[in-house]
């Protein structure tokens, strides 16, 4: 696992062992409060998608008492911190029944499944063993979305407590949700929208009941709030430097990162181990050991590359959290 | 980390998914190719830990033969893991500029034979000073840029200047030169040999210039998986920094001597016509810059989309799996894949043979 040289709380952000992942405490708190307030004002419920950060302790910091996660193994970790309901985004396998029952002893669980058949099977498995598990049907609005196609909803509602619609793979979430939400809400059950990118507040005007969203603490404000600090290890030619942070330390699954607070510096590309920092000659003077903050293009994938999350405020280290669900894929 | 760990002897079908598997016979085949290729040669394999991140597996290649009993590490933390795993000869193949990391390396050099690449005189002085302060000695190799336009000296003259400096400074011992190169696309054997030789000769030009300055050069560490059989035939190359060959990836499939040994087993969650949805996504597979994995045995099946924890596949006709079926995914970039997992499940046939931790996973430092 990751083996940084830990720095004492109170150290400067710029003294952290590089590369290191950090969030800016006051910014994520402000972003979270502002977004939660906007959602509340529209009468909707907000369920944070904690799989974005995979860090149960961060939920405490953000006052998130119920969460959505992608996998059963993530739910197991979060159940030690969360006291509210945990929503799991996929059906559990029969071999995971014991884990589900164990979690349900601690917190209520809501499971999102692709079909009524899956829900029926799971309901049979938990029947008589717990009353702390409920089920939601995932509804698909596009062929390449997992779930029961919206046109196949037949009104049967046994065991189903709501419908979940995802905007995954959708070009314009507002147009998509404006079309599909009314079709689903006619069933009379709560409609939950799972946003896979940062859902802009404009979309809250669409009629649905609950929003699952996880990027708002990190993308909801004007300034960056999550970054990776990296250092220069080589300056072989003018206008080019190599950073000790490559694809293994910052995800390029969504593109190369940007350099925070800089217009003259850019990441040209990344190899597995290094980042290629470039600038126009004369626009910067960069030496060995200089540090830079990179903003990841893919936040959730970058969290998944680290075992530790540094919390900073005013460029000072104020906390260090375990990213307990890193690698919890099943 | 994953909180579900299989037991040795478990049948493959009972594993939770997704799981990162190693096909043990395929990996051992790859190790045997190296052992045979380097048998009786002066040049030996120095396997790269960045691809495998597990001393147990590195030791398996050392036991199979063809190596010099040492390994490469990309980062200081990776070197620490290898030393803790019992390997005592480490070449760190990335420049290190941080004081704290250099102190760690200098400390490690007290219990292991540590070598580090440099490309900058200021950095070399820093390494020297920290090694002196620690009372240890670090071997120095000068990195030569042969083709990739990244770190490394750009000329033999720069190499000679650095070598001279390394011989003058305390706490460091000049050992030689190193380079890393790549070949684009699906290279045939002739391209591999032509391009590989051309690049390695650039590194050897620096070696010659240093020797012409009356400085002995003990090591030339060059070559990688695509030149595993090229480099040992070039006079002067003493070791090859191969890593990908051990587990392989589909983008290196032109290296027909090796078999793909790393696979991710996934479960089909849902099927809709020609679309299938599986429980493995970007976080466990990686898709750097949009490069997608392949589905074993289904070359026409494509990834429509990779999400954080699942993916959407599309087949050319009705999706050939049912919900609950298992399929096997082959990585496009093997070391990116391995870096996302905490353990390998080693399988032989349909049975779990071992579970190997990946202690250098996440060792970015």
Report on the architecture of this protein.
The complex is a heterodimer of chains A (330) and B (365). With 330 residues, chain A is an alpha/beta fold. Chain A has two domains: 13-23 and 222-322, Beta Barrel (Lyase, Ornithine Decarboxylase, Chain A, domain 1), CATH 2.40.37; 25-219, TIM Barrel (Alpha-Beta Barrel), CATH 3.20.20. Chain A is 22% helix and 28% strand. Chain B has 365 residues and is an alpha/beta fold. Chain B is built from nine helices and 17 strands. In chain B, strands 1, 10, 11, 12, 13, 14, 15, 16 and 17 form a nine-stranded mixed sheet that branches. Chain B has an eight-stranded parallel sheet with strand order 8-7-6-5-4-3-2-9. In chain B, strand 2, helix 2 (55-64) and strand 3 form a beta-alpha-beta unit. In chain B, helix 4 (99-108) packs across helix 5. Chain B is elongated, with a radius of gyration of 22 Å. Chain B starts with 18 loop residues before the first strand and ends in an 8-residue tail after the last strand. The mean pLDDT of chain B is 95. Chains A and B meet through helix 3 and strand 11 of A and helix 3, helix 4, helix 5, strand 10 and helix 8 of B.
In short:
Chain A has 330 residues and is an alpha/beta fold. Chain A is 22% helix and 28% strand. Chain B has helices at 24-38, 55-64, 76-84, 99-108, 121-134, 156-168, 189-212, 282-285, 334-338; strands at 19-23, 44-48, 67-73, 89-92, 113-118, 138-144, 172-179, 219-221, 239-240, 262-272, 275-278, 294-295, 302-306, 311-314, 326-330, 343-348, 351-357.
CATH superfamily of the largest domain in chain A: Alanine racemase
Helical content of chain A, roughly?
Answer: 10-25%
* Through-space gap between termini of chain A: 19 Å
Tell me the strand percentage band of chain A: 25-35%
């Amino acid at each position: 696992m990751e083996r940084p040289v830990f720095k004492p709380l109170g150290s400067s952000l710029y003294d952290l062992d590089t590369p290191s992942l950090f969030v800016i405490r006051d910014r994520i708190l402000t972003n979270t409060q502002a977004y939660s307030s906007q959602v509340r004002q529209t009468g909707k419920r907000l369920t944070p998608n904690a799989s974005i950060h995979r860090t149960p302790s961060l939920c405490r910091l953000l006052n998130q008492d119920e969460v959505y996660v992608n996998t059963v193994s993530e739910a197991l970790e979060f159940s030690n911190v969360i006291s509210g309901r945990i929503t799991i985004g996929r059906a559990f396998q029969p071999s995971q029944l014991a884990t589900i029952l164990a979690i349900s002893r601690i917190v209520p669980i809501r499971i999102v499944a692709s079909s009524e058949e899956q829900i029926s099977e799971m309901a049979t498995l938990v029947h008589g063993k717990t009353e702390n598990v409920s089920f939601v049907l995932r509804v698909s609005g596009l062929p390449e979305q997992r779930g029961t196609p919206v046109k196949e909803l037949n009104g049967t509602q046994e065991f189903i407590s709501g419908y979940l619609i995802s905007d995954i793979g959708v070009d314009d979430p507002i147009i998509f949700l404006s079309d599909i939400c009314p079709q689903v809400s006619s069933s009379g059950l709560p409609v939950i929208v799972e946003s896979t990118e940062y859902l802009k507040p404009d979309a809250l005007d669409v009629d649905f009941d609950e929003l699952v969203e996880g990027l708002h603490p990190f993308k909801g404000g004007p300034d960056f709030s999550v970054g990776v600090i990296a250092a220069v290890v080589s300056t072989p030619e003018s206008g080019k430097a190599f950073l000790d942070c490559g694809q293994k330390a910052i995800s390029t699954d969504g593109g190369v990162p940007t350099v925070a607070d800089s217009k003259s510096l850019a990441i040209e590309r990344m190899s597995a181990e290094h980042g290629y920092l470039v600038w126009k000659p004369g626009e910067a003077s960069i030496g060995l050991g200089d540090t830079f903050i990179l903003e990841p293009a893919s936040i959730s994938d970058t969290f998944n590359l680290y075992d530790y999350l540094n919390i900073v405020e005013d460029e000072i280290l104020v906390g260090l959290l375990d990213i307990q669900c890193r690698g919890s894929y099943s | 980390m994953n909180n579900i760990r299989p037991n040795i002897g478990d049948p493959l079908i009972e594993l939770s998914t997704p799981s990162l598997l190693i096909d043990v016979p395929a990996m051992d085949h790859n190790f045997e190719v190296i052992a045979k290729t380097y048998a009786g040669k002066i040049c030996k394999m120095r396997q790269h830990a960045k691809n495998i991140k597990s001393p147990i597996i590195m030791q398996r290649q050392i036991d199979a033969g063809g190596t010099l009993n040492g390994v490469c590490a990309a980062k200081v933390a990776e070197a620490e893991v290898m030393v803790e795993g019992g390997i005592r000869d480490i070449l760190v193949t990335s420049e290190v500029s941080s004081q704290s990391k250099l102190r760690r390396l200098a400390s490690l050099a007290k219990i292991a034979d540590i070598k580090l690449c440099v490309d900058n005189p200021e950095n070399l002085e820093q390494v020297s000073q920290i090694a002196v302060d620690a009372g240890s000695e670090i071997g120095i190799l000068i990195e030569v840029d042969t083709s990739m336009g990244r770190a490394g000296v750009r000329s033999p003259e720069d190499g000679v200047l650095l070598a001279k400096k390394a011989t003058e400074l305390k706490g460091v011992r000049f050992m030689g030169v190193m380079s890393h190169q790549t070949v684009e696309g699906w290279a045939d054997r002739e391209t591999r040999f032509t391009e590989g030789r051309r690049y390695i000769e650039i590194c050897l030009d620096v070696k010659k210039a240093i020797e012409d300055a009356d400085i002995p050069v003990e090591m030339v560490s060059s070559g990688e998986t695509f030149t595993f059989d090229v480099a040992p035939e070039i006079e002067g190359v003493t070791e090859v920094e191969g890593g990908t060959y051990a587990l392989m990836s589909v983008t290196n499939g032109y290296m027909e001597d090796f078999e793909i040994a790393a696979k991710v087993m996934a479960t089909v969650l849902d099927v809709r016509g020609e679309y299938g949805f599986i429980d493995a996504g970007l976080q466990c597979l990686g898709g750097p810059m949009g490069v997608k994995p392949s589905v074993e045995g289904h070359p026409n099946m494509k990834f429509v989309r990779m999400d954080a924890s699942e993916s959407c596949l599309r087949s050319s006709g009705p999706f050939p799996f049912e919900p609950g079926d298992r399929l096997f995914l082959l990585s496009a970039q093997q070391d990116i894949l391995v870096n996302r997992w905490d353990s390998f499940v080693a399988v032989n046939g349909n049975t779990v043979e071992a579970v190997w931790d990946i202690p250098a996973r996440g060792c970015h430092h």
